[in-house]
Amino acid sequence: MSDITSFKQLGLSKWLLDSLRAMKITQPTTIQSHCIPEILKGRDCIGGAKTGSGKTITFAAPMLARWSEDPCGMFGVVLTPTRELAMQIAEQFTALGSSMNIRVALIVGGESIVNQAIELQRKPHFIIATPGRLAHHILNSGEDTVGGLKRAKYLVLDEADFLLNDTFAKDLSTCIGALPDKNARQTLLFTATITDQVRALQNAPAKGGKLPIFAYQVESVDKVAIPSTLKVEYILIPEHVKEAYLYQLLTCENYINSNVIIFVNRTATAEVLRKTLKHLDLRVASLHSQMSQQERTNSLHRFRANAARILIATDVASRGLDIPTVELVVNYDIPSDPDTYIHRSGRTARAGKSGDAISFITPRDVSRIAAIEERINKKMTECDKVHDTAVIRKALVKVTKAKRESLMEMEKENFGERRKIQRRKNMMNDKSLRS
């Protein structure tokens, strides 16, 4: 394909061109240039591109173009693994379709099931959902609520590599079972990592007179795991003083004013760190599954607006979130999957900008680091911004005191009880929906 320099050349409707201009999106990215024309032709599509390459517009624009020709019922379903990604995609659909009275329903956990059922009964044009919550409605909310799914023209799996693993298998099967047969709809898969499951779908033969699947990867996603502008470093740390090293890193000359995301593996760790850093007078927010949806939304807004310069997150924030100002990613805990490291690191060094990813390595992390270095085809270098004597002299005593206070607060608040309470609420909502 020759270089395409405008959305008009891709064949999009004039109203969409106006919407894109209003959003200050004027030039298509590589993935958009290659995939949008093929989706408009009616082809199923698999698109592989790094985070930040414009994948949402790639599927949203052609879907909206076709919807505007026949704006009826439940036209398209987008499934994505996290609430935050779903919110972000819904925002883009709403912004793109704002001049056309588009109805977009956001169906995710942490919100009222009853209100969502009412919204689905109104037959929104596009449903942006996490698989678990949409599957719940399909199984429990009745034909009046979800029957319109049988006439949907599009199914999108965003972050498809993640959705196609065992975690989502049952819910994904329920969602797909409520949609038209694959020969009667367009299926669009987008991913930052081409996995064996994605390849299997890519190689499936076309049936029922459908055009063959169109597949396009930008810069061979598997080979370009991390951008060249990303600096990857490590700090060797004894487990019991990780918080002190973190505080020293966040307050060192290099990062004292930087926007930072700190990734941890457990929700309890995220909460301990948030409270500890707050006691140390740092502007901090957190993002994890034991927060309510409103709290999660507020944290993201605060971080994007720079009201908090540090975001502590579990892997709900590792994929796809559009937070363009991050200068440092800290892997406080090392992930077990090297691809998770890639997605975490993808929060910085976006769109040609530079960024740093620093990993805290304890003795038990060595094998995980070896697997990550093999996956990214790059050796980490040792970070020289924090020195042992400085950590001990400046940070250890006050950080230990702040952590102790934080743990006492969490004990008083019964941290961990929220999930049990939410489960009880969901069970009560289920009973009210069935009665």
UniProtKB/TrEMBL annotation:
Q: Name one GO cellular component term.
A: small-subunit processome
User: What EC numbers are recorded for this enzyme?
Assistant: 3.6.4.13
Keywords assigned by UniProt, alphabetized: ATP-binding, Helicase, Hydrolase, Nucleotide-binding, Nucleus, Ribosome biogenesis, RNA-binding, rRNA processing
**Domain DEAD-box RNA helicase Q span(s) in chain numbering:** 5-33
Q: Where is this region: Disordered?
A: 411-435
- Residue ranges occupied by any Helicase ATP-binding domain in the UniProt entry: 36-212
- Give the GO biological process terms: endonucleolytic cleavage in 5'-ETS of tricistronic rRNA transcript (SSU-rRNA, 5.8S rRNA, LSU-rRNA); endonucleolytic cleavage in ITS1 to separate SSU-rRNA from 5.8S rRNA and LSU-rRNA from tricistronic rRNA transcript (SSU-rRNA, 5.8S rRNA, LSU-rRNA); endonucleolytic cleavage to generate mature 5'-end of SSU-rRNA from (SSU-rRNA, 5.8S rRNA, LSU-rRNA)
Reaction(s) catalysed by this chain, per the record, are:
ATP + H2O = ADP + phosphate + H(+)
Where does it live in the cell? Nucleus
Q: Where do the Helicase C-terminal domain residues begin and end?
A: 245-392
Per its UniProt record, what Pfam families does this chain match? DEAD, Helicase_C
UniProt GO MF annotations: ATP binding; ATP hydrolysis activity; RNA binding; RNA helicase activity
The record's annotation in SUPFAM superfamilies points to: P-loop containing nucleoside triphosphate hydrolases
Q: Which CDD domains match?
A: DEADc_DDX49, SF2_C_DEAD
Top-tier EC class: hydrolase
Which PANTHER family does UniProt cross-reference here? ATP-DEPENDENT RNA HELICASE, ATP-DEPENDENT RNA HELICASE RHLE-RELATED
What this protein is called in its record is RNA helicase
